[in-house]
Write a structure and sequence with these properties.
With 323 residues, the protein is mainly α. It is built from 14 helices and no strands.
Length: 323
């Protein structure tokens, strides 16, 4: 969260392209150091630094993506986030293969760090250079405008919904629907695959419908899918419902970052940082909120929160582009 909150300032000072590469190389360094940590305290220190670099890279690469998108006639942000999701799916498989091959953690992490650092250095000279006008002084903190705050709330709703699926979908199928451990993973798998697939097709929808209509459709799909998953105690319908949530939430975050870049004017870095701060805070509070609700009532009733969040996206979408 500290990294997300300060990333806008770092982008303003050095440009989003440099901040992306430097933060990415920092991720590689601390990923390698994690595997070599001799004590718990050094592991925690490496994780803190890794988290900071990851957050800075997340904001800066989205800022650079917005800068690239502004040079093109059609939106691309959803496809960029599709590559992010695809990377998660592909390298989860790679990690599984590495473990199956019996490669030790240091070899795994250091090898990955070297490979990713090479990819970053290869990409560095090809990135679009982005920097603030020379007459502007980089501010450490900029209070976001109301429109940016609204987009941030939309991002918060989307990220909390994503987090709910990541944290609770398998548990729901296991504890509420009484499925086997293997079958219980199908709900999240359907969610992740549908989200990744939708992100690669989301730019075409956004270009055709515009931000407001697309957000309303996304919120509606999520609402219907989640009601389907919770209303009927049927495993395959629950899997279909969770997949619908993936379809609905897939392009909300890309839209939010793209809107932030436009609403931020000459300072998109601070707007994107504000939206990212509100969005990622959902990953902190979401599991605790849903867990508390599940303890007070039931997990089935707690996940109704996702329906409320989806309806909120539909409601807020009309205000997203208003100054």
């Amino acid at each position: 969260m500290v990294g997300v909150a300060t990333a806008g300032h770092l982008c303003s000072r050095s440009g989003s392209h440099r901040a992306t590469i430097l933060a990415g190389l920092g991720c590689c360094l601390f990923l390698a150091l994690m595997s070599l940590a001799p004590t718990l305290s050094t592991l925690i220190a490496a994780l803190v630094c890794f988290g900071f670099c990851t957050a800075v890279m997340d904001v800066s690469m989205n800022t650079n993506g917005v800068a690239v998108e502004k040079t093109l006639p059609k939106p691309i942000m959803s496809s960029l986030h599709g590559m992010f999701s695809l990377g998660g799916l592909v390298f989860a498989g790679v990690g599984w293969a590495v473990v199956r091959a019996g490669i030790a953690v240091p070899g795994h992490f250091i090898g990955a760090a070297i490979a990713f650092a090479g990819a970053l250095l290869f990409a560095s000279p090809k990135m679009l250079e982005s920097a603030p006008p020379p007459d502007q002084k980089a501010a450490a903190f900029v209070l976001p405008e109301k429109a940016v705050m609204v987009v941030g709330l939309i991002a918060f709703c989307a990220f909390l919904s994503e987090g709910a699926m990541g944290d609770w979908s398998a548990i729901y199928m296991r504890k509420v629907l009484h499925q086997s451990p293997a079958t219980s993973t199908l709900g999240y798998l359907a969610f992740a695959l549908s989200m990744t697939s939708m992100r690669f097709g989301g730019d075409a929808l956004l270009h055709r419908w515009g931000s407001v209509t697309t957000l309303r459709v996304c919120g509606t799909i999520t609402t219907v899918g989640m009601i389907l998953a919770l209303w009927f105690v049927v495993p395959w319908l629950t899997v279909v419902g969770f997949a619908s949530v993936g379809l609905g939430m897939a392009i909300v975050a890309p839209i939010a970052f793209s809107l932030g870049g436009r609403l931020g004017g000459d300072r998109p870095d601070h707007a994107i940082a504000s939206i990212a701060t509100m969005g990622y805070s959902a990953f902190l509070v979401g599991p605790a909120v849903i867990g508390f609700m599940a303890k007070q009532w039931s997990l089935r009733e707690a996940l109704i929160l996702v329906v409320v969040l989806a309806i909120s996206i539909v409601t807020l979408s009309g205000f997203a582009s208003k100054k």
